[in-house]
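Hi Y.,

Following your request, here is the sequence exactly as I used it, all 279 residues.
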Amino acid sequence: MSVDPGVVGDPADALARDCPAWLADLDLWTDAELHGDPYGRYAELRKCPMGHSEKNGGFWVAARYADVLAVLQDADSFSNEVLFVPPTKDPSGRRIPIELDPPEHGPYKQMLGRWFSPQRVREWEDRARSHMRALLEQTAGRDQVEFVREIAVPLPFRVMGDVFGLREEDVRLLRQWDEEGMRAGTNDLEARKAAARSTRVGMLEFFGRLAASKAADASGPASGMIDDLARVRLNGAPLTQAEMANVCVTMWNASLHTTSNVLANSIYHLAERPDLQAR
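Below is the corresponding structure, written out as tokens. Let me know if you'd prefer a different format.
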């Protein structure tokens, strides 16, 4: 996310307003305290209206709900075109729709929004529960479960495989790529960037081929998001193969890590709060 400094203010001014001193030199990739137990850092950041670090190419930090919401609703000051830290642009082009600004963003958001309406999501509830039960059955009779590895990570893959209309072998391949390129456990920034680029290229090719085959034969009933993308019209024209592949990669990646993190943090919170477990 890029920002017009003239709107938010000078970084030094931001840091002077109750922001922790360490924020000015925060390195997201190597900060030991942030990686070891981030919750203390998060608590300090929530006292800070808007902070700035000079590391990783420079980036702004908004940690409170109201500040984050204000950033998301102010496209004139905060552009979506550069979302990553350090600032990088993918050689394959902008990620659709998350790196588009209004008004370009609007038609894609409207097109994809129907897949995430409450009614549409409820259609997948029974299958999602079935996947969760299957994963839990594999842990039956054990005293301990490694929740992230055994539940939180595989569940979104299984559910989104259904949503996309993918075969089981395709889901396994995509998970392998994710482990190799997106979850690579290293603080070597260049190594992680290279792995992520390689994975993204492979995924674009994979979804591009799949989208092309769906677009070539759209006579049967739609069985997933990719079928739907092959039939949709945006501003009166079908999506190109490149657009379909781009959207698929963006939506696929967006559905995995965030969901895994929410599941893991929910379990952590419940473990810390036994009084909530019966609710």
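The longest strand covers residues 51-53.

Thanks again,
Q.
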